[in-house]
Every structure is written in C-alpha cells, then in structure tokens.
C-alpha cells in the first residue's frame, strides 16, 4: 500500500508543476496584450479664483514736506511733533510786519475809493458844492499869501548876499568894487587866484543888477513879475555862492598870510556861505510852495466845476476802475501775506519740525512734515503682463512681513497709473491699494505682500490649465471617450477665467463628467 502511494506522488507532482507553469504563461501573455491605464481628470463644476501677487510698501494717504513760498526769518512756530492738526491750522509764521502794513494801507485805499464811488453815484449835494467853494477860496488865499511874502523874501536874500560879498569878504580883496579886484594874499595856483578875482567882479555885477530889479518890486506886483523875480533871485544867489566857493578855494591855497588871519578868513567865508545857502534854500522852498499851491488851486477848481456840472457816466466808470485797481492791489498784498504763513493743507499728524524760531529760511528749506489722517495705502509696481487683469475696486488680501502670514488685512485697488515706469528693465504700472480699515499695527514704511483678486466665478466647469494645448489659435484638450480601449479624442474648447491655482474655466466644448487626459 505504501509503495502504491509513493508511486502516485512521484507521477502527480510533475503534472501539477507543469499545470502551474502553463497558467502563469497564459496570464503573462494576457497581461502583455492589455493596454496601460490612462490618467485623466473628471470635468467638474466649482469656483475659479484669479489672484495677482505683488509686494509693496505702506504709505500714509497724504505725506508732505511743507515749505514757505517766500524766504524770511521765522517769527513763530506753532507745530510740534506728534500734534494732531486739522486742515487750515497755522503751523509757522515768518516775520511779515512790512507786508501787513502794506496790506493795511491797501485796504484803506479800497475804502477811500469805494467812498468816492458811492458819492459819485449818489450825486453832488448843495452842501458839498459849498464845501468845495470854501476849499477853493482857501486854496486861492493860501496862494496869495505865498505871493505876498515874495518881495520881503527877496529883499532879505539880497541883504544876505550883499553882506556875504561886500562885508564878509571885503578884507580879502583890494579894488573890490572896481573892474580889477585883487586878492590881498598870494595863492599857490595862479588859476585859482584868477578865478576868484573874476568871480568877485561878477558877484558885484550880480548884486548891482539884483538891486535894480528889487527897486520896483512890491508885494502887490503881478504874480508873473513875482515869479520872474524869484527866478532872477535864484540865479543871483547861485552866482554869489559860486564866488564864495572860489574864494574859499583860494584861501585854502594861500601862502603869505598868518595862521590867525587864515582862520579869520575861513570864518568869514563859512558865515557867508551859511547866509547865502540859507537864503537860497528859503527862496527855492518858496518857489516849490507856490508851484504846489497852484496845482492845489487847479485841482480844487476842477473838483468844484465837476460837482457843478454833475457826475458823468465816464467819471463814475473811471472811479469804478480806480476802485478795482485798489482791490487788486489789496489782493496782491493779501497773497504776499499768505506766503508768510504756513497752513496745514489737510488734517494729519506732525512728524517733523525742522527750523527754530529766528532761523532765516529759503523757499527750498522744509519746515514741517505732515502725514494725513486717512486710511493707509500700499504702493506696488505691477508688471505689464498682469496690469490688464486689474481694475479699480478689486479686493485684495494683505500680509505684512512684520507680523507674518497669519495676520491678514483687507484692501482694495484705488489708483492705477496710466503711464508705465521701468523697474529693472521691465515696464510696470504703479498701483495704489487702500486698506479697508485702519489698524494700529499698520505703519508707514512696512513691506506688504498683496494678493489682488482679479476675478472669481462660481459654479463653472474647469480643467487643469496644464492639460490645455494651443494650436492655430485654438484651445484643445484630449478627452478619454472609451476607457476600456483607452480611446482618446482631441476636442476644441472655449476657455474663460484662468485661476491662480492652476485651473481654467471651460465655457464650451466639455460637459461635467468628461474625462480630460492629463499631460
């Protein structure tokens, strides 16, 4: 029995082994004939989010270094670092007393011109005419008084000139009243001596002529005669003074007189010159007073005639023009005064005060630094490839390097520059974002990492962006149409929003559940 079992085992084992080998061979053959599985993505519906990441710097909404519009000395500084100021607050003032005085005078001129215009528009009252007549009578009387004193003034001037020539200098000449007067001393310069002697002869002639002119002059003489007498008197006094100057020059160059005599001569000449100069000054002053009073009389007469004739439209218009001119002058000084006062252009906080009281500054010197109270902003440069995807009002998520990625702030795009700026060879556009709300952690100068939401769509079909190919201007994907046989069909699609996470919206060409072969 044992022998039989042993014999069976020896014959069966080889058959079993052979059977297993055949099964394995069949399996391996079948496996080699089967196509490998294809990786694919099931087209689904969901949300597409498009974001643009940039880095920027936090800045206050307004930041200015304020300067004066004119140079000057600091009179007062009201601003202090850390002060909260409102728009229009006075921060500093230059010494402006001169401009303030000019403005006050200009304001007074405006008031005067306005009063004159009002009076012209109302018309002339009878009492105003009487006032003008009284003014004219007084002006004419004052002119008459000036003329009435002319003869006495000229008599006095002649007396002083005569004394200066024939008394004060008499000891310095011999034959002084003859045709050939001589100096009683020697002079180092012959020309100076000759000039002095010639001028003495001329001075005598001038005095003689003057005396004859005055012989017929009275206070009641016609005004034209008195005017002529004043002119002649001025010429005579000038000639006498010229003589005295020449004699003084001769005395200064005298050689044969003692020191005491020389001192006496100089005293005579100084007294004579003082007399003649005083007389000439009085005469010129009288001429000026008469000329000025003549103008006054004519002006008052014209004003009276104007009032008698009534106010013409041309007069009113002319006065209105004068008023406008006065107002323009006042406005000019108001503007000049404003340049000496530094105002806060907006509400904010003072961050720096540069000069001190008494410092002299120019228009180039910063005085006060001011930052605004509004919401802080972020300035970032966005490349030209991304700028078309951004629009005003786009929301953004912001993190700050100072606080790490866990502190997230919200912001929005408020400004996009229309012109580009080249940064490291790349055209970029400065874009400004504004925080949605203030936070004490937000400080000017911090670095901000910004993710701007440029687009978002809900419940749309999408596929991985990497699985989309472009050919001839069209977009294509490979769709698995027979999973069993791995049959693939190239399908044209229309795409929409491209997401930041590697997905792209499919507008047409696919339906939910389609299997897009992954590249």
In short:
By secondary structure, the chain is an alpha+beta fold.
Show the helix and strand layout:
Blueprint: H1 2-33, E1 40-42, E2 44-59, E3 63-67, E4 72-77, E5 84-85, E6 90-94, H2 97-122, H3 126-148, H4 150-168, E7 173-174, E8 182-183, H5 190-215, H6 223-252, H7 259-309, H8 313-338, E9 341-343, E10 348-353, E11 360-361, E12 366-372, E13 377-383, H9 384-387, E14 395-400, E15 404-416, E16 421-423, E17 426-435, E18 447-464, E19 469-471, E20 474-482, E21 487-498, E22 503-508, E23 515-517
Antiparallel strand pairs: 1-23, 2-13, 2-18, 3-12, 4-6, 4-11, 5-10, 6-9, 7-8, 10-12, 13-17, 14-15, 14-18, 15-17, 16-17, 18-22, 19-20, 20-21, 21-22
Helix pairs in contact: 2-8, 3-7, 4-5, 4-6, 4-7, 5-6, 6-7
Keywords:
519 residues; alpha+beta; Elongation Factor Tu (Ef-tu), domain 3; OB fold (Dihydrolipoamide Acetyltransferase, E2P); 6-stranded antiparallel beta barrel; 4-stranded antiparallel sheet; 23 strands
Describe this structure in words.
The protein is an alpha+beta fold. It folds into four domains: 50-57 and 377-517, Beta Barrel (Elongation Factor Tu (Ef-tu), domain 3), CATH 2.40.30.170; 63-95 and 341-372, RNA polymerase II/Efflux pump adaptor protein, barrel-sandwich hybrid domain (OB fold (Dihydrolipoamide Acetyltransferase, E2P), Beta Barrel); 101-123 and 316-337; 126-310, Up-down Bundle (Butyryl-CoA Dehydrogenase, subunit A, domain 3). 46% of the residues lie in helices and 29% in strands. The chain is built from nine helices and 23 strands. The strands form five sheets. A six-stranded antiparallel β-barrel has the order 2-13-17-15-14-18. Helix 3 (126-148) packs antiparallel against helix 7 and helix 4 (150-168) packs antiparallel against helix 7. It is elongated.
